[in-house]
Amino acid sequence: MSEYIEINNVRKVFRQDDRETVAIDDISLSIKKEELVSVLGPSGCGKTTVLRMIAGLTEPTTGEIFVDGNKVTAPGSDRGMVFQDFALFPWRSVRKNIEFGLEIAKMPAAERRERVDKYIDIVGLTDFADARVHELSGGMKQRVGIARAMVNNPKVILMDEPFGALDAQTRNIMQAGLVRILEKTDQTIVFVTHSVDEAIFLSDRIVILTKRPARIKEIIDIPWPRPRDRASPEFTALRKRILTELEKENVLN
Amino acid sequence: MNTVTVITVVGFLMFFSIGTAFILTAETEDTEHLDVNIIAKANINGSGIFATPSLELSMKPVPAIPGDEPTPAEIEAWKNAWSGTVFMTPGPGSIQHYMLNKFVVNDLGLDFNIYDNSKAPGAVYWTPVAPAAMLTFFKTNSYVDGGFPWEPCFSEVLIDLGFEYSVATSDELDEDHPCCMVAAKTSFLEANEGAVLRFLSAYVEALDWVNDALADKSGSDYQLLVTIAAGWTGKSTDVVSLAFESLAYMYDLSSGSTPLEDYAAALIPDFEEFKLINKHIDDPTAFASAFINHKYIDKVMAEKSDEYPSKKVKIRVGHLTADIHQIGLAVGIKLNLFDKYGVEVITTEYGNGPAVMTAFGLGVIDIGILGLPPALYGTANFR
Amino acid sequence: MSKFKYDSERRSHRFGRTLLIMAVSLVTMIYIWWILAIILNTPVIPTPDLVWDAFLNLFRNGDPNTNLSMWDHMFASLKRFIGGFILAFAVAVPLGLLIGYSKFLDEFTKPILEILKPIAPIAWAPVFIFATTVAIGPILVVFIGIFFPLLYNTIFGVKKMDPSLVDASKTLGASNGQIFYKVMLPCTTPFIMNGMRIGFGIGWMCIVAAEMIAPIGGGIGYFISMQGLTLFNWPNVFVGLAIVSVLGLLTTGLADYAYRMIAKRTGME
């Protein structure tokens, strides 16, 4: 596996009314192809900013980001994104939401339909293909969001607390579902979350950030096979360790 | 059913039964909300039709040999010349509009329609424009072929554009037709007889002075009259001098060959036909006699009210904007004749006769000087 | 005969109930009018039967004072109304989208718009009519009436747009043009429709008022003004008032229906 996403000495400073806030202070990170990396950290530490910089929605103040050897300068369809608040188009049906990216890419209608059908099937929404967004439950909405990001077949999928707005039970179902979906695809995923449990359940590696200004505090490899058992001793032990680390950050705040 | 429903239903039933009984039994007697009487004349004649000369319009078909009967072809050509033309009038309800309407329908046998972006043959079209604005409107709107303003606006048009624009003066259409009238609210007349007599005394003295001045064009009074008229109307002395030629001032309600009552009574069926009067008047003669009140002007002509009380009486007078027909009012004010008779006149200008009638209706004027038609049909419709 | 029982679950029952209440309400209004007309006993407020006679007469024989039919009057007003609306739509919607999109334009146009907004559209009528012509003036008055609600609703719509929708479409590869057509426009459509709905109501007030001043080629406002202020034909005035009410109801009803359809379709209720 090669170094696929390359984050080199990235620093992000927000300026407002002559006041500078350093959100991210010198982060360097390499992510391999087909890897799932979670970014964990105290609230407001700048996890989402890291993700938005990879997407090209936010520009780093200094430093560079490369995806597959190309420098990131603007958003592009090679980096799909899933949002915490779903960000679905309410005037479009489930099918038309998923189709949006292909429409933009001007793919012929027949091909588009076939491809959309496949992803509707993958996320298990075949019965709701023509439903309107406001008719769906929160979990179903995020499945549309995931399918919409994946249908373009991007190299990278950036997930910004995708299950943060869901209740605990739906969350677990969605996490298991995501694991199943990932088996069928080969995308590289950067996953921002504030749930330690979720990070351990899903990730190949967990990157823990410090409180603001964010730096990388620790990177933890999780070479366990999936699906993982949340009740296993090593799972609970790791969870306890990470929680303690994060608590230290919060106390120091 | 609960109590509220029962009460609501019973309430509705009671309301509708009482209401129906009330509507069916109510006596619709006429109360007099607005009643206006004519108390003096102001002028006769004094309006004119102008049009683009190239149209070659005339009021009668012109035979090839003067004095001969016109041939059917000549009559046809005469009608064709008028057909599809657009004329500005002061609006429905003005004497000018009424005269043109009558001429177009009765003499030409054409329709008289409002202009609606079409000049299809078979009709003469009208568009309402205030006389004072007609000259400018004529110059800036090429679809307009002519207009029918009152004086001095007619004279102003002729001096500005040339005399070839004149088609006819209003007395060629209807010889010595009555025009402006002095009208007063009936309730005011009844309660303020002394004030009315004093107002009319000043008014009669003013018009006598005007007629004397007009009789001697070289006299200094004529010069003064022209100056007053130019100031009153905002037109040049040339315009007002020309305007004086085409009208005559008189206050006597009994003057003229046709009694004013007969003239007004004859207008009533016409106005009903033209839908200016919207309620049928069974006895036009009786209506006209009650409408025209000789009592005050006759009294003043026999003996001017010379009370000259030290305490002045205020009278609110409505008149038309820049109308030379109403010069008596201007002269009375300028020569302090109202002062002399102990009257303080508070004047208000209105754009047309119907607006003066509206002012009567609103109770903001006591006396108004306006055309006979709006006074007549307005009084009928307000009854 | 079985006893009728109202069942709120049934559509036909609900509809019948609404219809019945509406009928009783309208009849009540006419009754109150009739009784007031008799009590006040002035020709200025005619009884409903006189107005009904005038209505039949006007629709059978046309307006006798202009030789136009009542349909001509209505059509003349509608034409001006639609002209003003199209003009307002063509200016307010693109301008609103731009102002909502650009902070600079928002700040730049705000003082101008804030100064102009409180001026009643009808107050512009004499200025517009004399500055342009009687043919265009009334259309401009309607334009002003519809312009402001439409503009402010469009701006509001753009500002209320969820910024993550723009982010999402960017990560799906959309260009600025595509974002405009495929995201901004559908997002603001319900707000534009709402602006239209409000503007239509104001537009009718404007057209009637403007026609009272500019009397070329008929129009329902001209009809009312002439019958009321020149001819003192009160039953005809009431017929004119009823026509304005019906035309206003029809156009605002249409806009309301379109608004609800679009809001429902776009899931933005």
Describe the structure.
The complex is a heterotrimer of chains A (253), B (383) and C (269). By secondary structure, chain A is an alpha/beta fold. Chain A is built from 7 helices and 10 strands. Chain A folds into 2 domains: 3-78 and 155-252, Rossmann fold, CATH 3.40.50.300; 87-153, no CATH class. The longest helix of chain A is centred in the last third of the chain and has 20 residues, at 233-252. Helix content of chain B is 48%, strand content 16%. Chain B has 17 helices and 13 strands. In chain B, helix 5 packs across helix 10 and helix 9 crosses helix 14. The longest helix of chain B is centred in the first third of the chain and has 23 residues, at 3-25. The mean pLDDT of chain B is 87. Chain C folds into 2 domains: 1-41; 48-265, MetI-like fold. In chain C, helix 2 (48-61) packs across helix 10, helix 3 runs antiparallel to helix 8 and helix 7 (163-171) crosses helix 8. The model of chain C has no long low-confidence stretch (mean pLDDT 86). Chains in contact: A-C, B-C.
Strand order across the largest sheet of chain A: 6-7-8-3-9-10
CATH architecture of the largest domain in chain A: 3-Layer(aba) Sandwich
β-sheet strand percentage of chain B: 15-25%
- Please mark out the parts of chain A with pLDDT under 50 across 5 or more consecutive residues, or reply none: none
The biggest beta sheet of chain B is recorded as:
6 strands, mixed
What is the count of structural domains of chain B? Answer: 2
CATH fold annotation of the largest domain in chain A = Rossmann fold
Distance between the termini of chain B: 50 Å
